[in-house]
Amino acid sequence: MLAIVIPFYKAIFFRETLNSLVGQTNKKFKVYIGNDASPDSIDDLVKEYSDALEISYTYFENNLGHKSLVSHWKRCLELIKEETWFMILCDDDVISSNYIDSFYKNLKKIKQSNSKVVRYSSILISDTGEKISEPYNHPIIENALDSYVRKTKGLTRSSLSEYVFKNDIDDVNKVFIDFPNAYYSDDLSILLASNFGDIYSINEAFFYFRRGNYNLSGVNSDVVKGKKAEFLFYKYLFKNYSNLITRKQKQIFLFRLNRQFIFNRSYKVYRFVLKEQIKILDLKGICYLPILVLKKTVCRKQ
């Protein structure tokens, strides 16, 4: 059985999200809605759709999302009962009508691959629901770190909602790590939930990611928090899983942080990159940095 967990806050597109669930050709799933003390009342909407969907609805009195979106994710995941797989679906995204059916049709192959994470093809849509990208398809079997590297190169995209996770996580606190505005938290959760192993991809069904003015990935994104989260993400990876990252992958990641240093003049980023570059004995990418550090006006404390 599959659990669809929706950490709810805004209602503007929520009916479209629920309609995409009602339209599934396979109804073998349960919907868990966790309301993050939203000012938008959805009691009547939930009641309206309860005849067509198996819904468990919880209203949380305290809002967590404004401080920690990841904390709201985690308490919503605690609502899951006996389901063996789960997905976290945003309250403004939609899925194709064959989404759930494709999961069950591929389940045998998923189990044979020993993959704990399943990924769908995705398409970007606007606030009006218009498609603004071609489908992002994926290799059927792909290592999680290799997949993330493709993302850093702009060869694909990724967000939390197009993934299905096996519900054998002992402690969600060890998989869903809190970074500013949850930037990079989804990337890390995919790596951790997969145990840095393989991801199984389904390309015949589609996740529609809404990119517009109402989500953190839209035009109102907080660039400063995003850069801070990027540094914390790589720092976490190198500190805890350095042995699982290849030398080439480390070079790619450190190059990204080098760029961040150039733009932000962060001494903390510089020191981290220098330390890790020395470890892998590749000084080419940092040969210019000590010169910049000598200039007092270049670096600043974070």
Automatic annotation (TrEMBL):
Q: What Pfam families does the entry give?
A: Glycos_transf_2
Q: Please report the stretch or stretches of sequence annotated as the Glycosyltransferase 2-like domain.
A: 4-133
* InterPro entries according to UniProt: Glyco_trans_2-like, Nucleotide-diphossugar_trans
Q: Which SUPFAM superfamilies match?
A: Nucleotide-diphospho-sugar transferases
Question: What are the protein's GO molecular function terms?
Answer: hexosyltransferase activity
- The source's domain of life comes to Bacteria
Name the chain's protein: Glycosyltransferase 2-like domain-containing protein
**Species lineage:** Bacteria, Pseudomonadati, Bacteroidota, Flavobacteriia, Flavobacteriales
